[in-house]
Write a structure and sequence with these properties.
Layout (H helix, E strand, L loop, with lengths): L6 H12 L5 H31 L4 H32 L20 H25 L6 H39 L9 H12 L20 H9 L21 H7 L3 H4 L3 E5 L6 H14 L4 E5 H13 L3 H7 L5 E7 L6 H14 L4 E6 L7 H4 L3 H10 L1 E5 L5 H11 L1
Parallel strand pairs: 1-4, 1-5, 2-3, 3-4
Helix pairs in contact: 2-3, 3-4, 4-5, 5-7, 7-10, 11-12, 11-13, 13-15
Length: about 425
């Protein structure tokens, strides 16, 4: 039974949540402080240049002046982390998805990550200050040296404690997410269920041997294993086990690059296109496994199963809630697009799924036909759907004969 929410409580909650915008001026104030440090940097630099040109700069003076410049830059870096990371975490998302200069840490920033990075930056700044004291030791009192060292060690200890505490907290969050993860998306018909059972029992022959693109991860931790089990993969497939000699042609470098799972943090999509039996599902599952090992939650289903899941949600009047719930999974895999014909209403559901995740989270899609022919599957929805799907996407084409057919023909010949 659906839970009835109190309108007053809901309105109050939204109002309280909206107060986060009160923090926005604080971050813009820090931007002004960043400008002050830019001015201070160039002022110190100009003074150093004048002293060197005039011949009054000793070696100790130059070293201290350079350390001051480093100190200013490190504090400015700290400000950037607070401004960008804090705004993204506590106020609103910053739409940098796909930007070539997006910081690596911003894609997975949260309060724990931010605290650890800030603590590390403070330790670095403290190190520079302590080094300045030791460089100018003849003009620094023993008392100042002692307390500078003690304070620096305190910063190191606090950063180590924060880093230690953040590990179990992140692991606990991942376990909680894995426990809440649905097993297999949607209800499926008996023939589909039988097909899925067969795929689990037999290894997929479209996935033979040997791509040494990346080292095999043999020490996957329990959390990664939980995410892999919760993803609903038909079988575990690895990039290392893909027979790259079978397809007549595909972009090996692109697949190796995608194997790093950076596309998930960048919220990009992947589309595998090719005839049946060329290894599209193998590659999709293998990338999903890599994403799980990189700390991301993944959900796998065929296009028919996703259609049933979304149709059930629409019939129950909770389609929007279902799409929002799927945001907990940074990567969704939609297998076998085009194998089952879709009516106009179901095609509209797929469009809503792709549009909802556009620049918000990643999709891997496998299909037996190129994007230009998706109007055969999705009808009038195809142009808008493919436009959003392909905007930030790697499209990998696999050419060749079916590995299953080849094996069957070989067995008959024998």
């Amino acid at each position: 039974m659906a839970k009835v929410q109190n309108p007053t409580t809901t309105t109050l909650g939204y109002a309280l949540f909206a107060t986060r915008w009160l923090q926005a001026p604080l971050y813009f104030g820090l931007v002004a402080a960043q400008g002050v440090y830019v001015y201070k940097f160039f002022k110190e630099l100009w003074t150093l240049i004048l002293m060197c040109v005039s011949g009054h700069a000793t070696e100790t003076y130059v070293m201290l002046a350079v350390l001051k410049l480093v100190d200013v830059v490190m504090i400015a870096n700290l400000l950037i982390m607070v401004i960008v990371g804090g705004y993204e975490t506590f106020v609103s998302r910053i739409g940098l998805q796909g930007h070539r200069d997006q910081p690596e840490w911003l894609s997975h920033v949260n309060s724990n990550v931010l605290k650890v990075k800030l603590a590390t930056a403070i330790v670095g700044i403290s190190s520079v200050h302590l080094l300045q004291m030791f460089v100018d030791v003849h003009h620094t009192s023993h008392h100042a040296l002692l307390w500078g060292t003690v304070i620096h060690m305190a910063f190191i200890a606090s950063a180590a404690i924060l880093a230690y505490m953040s590990g179990p907290m992140v692991a606990h969050t991942d376990r909680a997410h894995a426990d809440r993860s649905p097993a297999a998306p949607a209800r499926v018909s008996r023939p589909q269920e039988h097909e899925r059972h067969e795929r689990q029992e037999k290894p997929d022959p479209a996935t033979p041997a040997a791509t040494p693109a990346l080292p095999r991860q043999t020490d996957a931790d329990a959390d990664a294993e939980a995410r892999i089990r919760a993803a609903g993969f038909p079988a575990r497939k690895l990039l290392e086990d893909f027979d790259e000699q079978h397809p007549r042609g595909f972009d090996r470098e692109a697949v190796a690059r995608l194997g790093k799972a950076d596309f998930v943090t960048a919220r990009r999509n992947v589309v595998f296109v090719g005839p049946p039996g060329t290894g599209k599902t193998h590659l999709a599952v293998a990338l999903g496994v890599r994403a799980c090992q990189a700390g991301h939650r993944v959900l796998f289903a065929t296009a028919a199963e996703w259609a049933a899941r979304l149709a059930d949600a629409r019939a129950a009047g909770r389609l929007e809630a279902e799409l929002t719930a799927l945001d907990d999974h940074p990567l969704l895999i939609v297998d076998e697009v085009g194998y089952t014909p879709l009516d106009t209403a179901t095609a509209g559901l797929f469009f809503q799924l792709v549009a909802h995740r556009y620049e918000r989270a990643s999709l891997i899609v496998t299909s037996d036909r190129p994007l230009g022919r998706w109007d055969e599957v999705f009808g009038p929805s195809a142009p808008a759907l493919t436009d959003r799907l392909a905007h930030h996407a790697d499209v990998v084409r696999l050419d060749g004969d079916s590995y299953r057919t080849r094996r069957a023909t070989s067995a008959w010949a024998d």
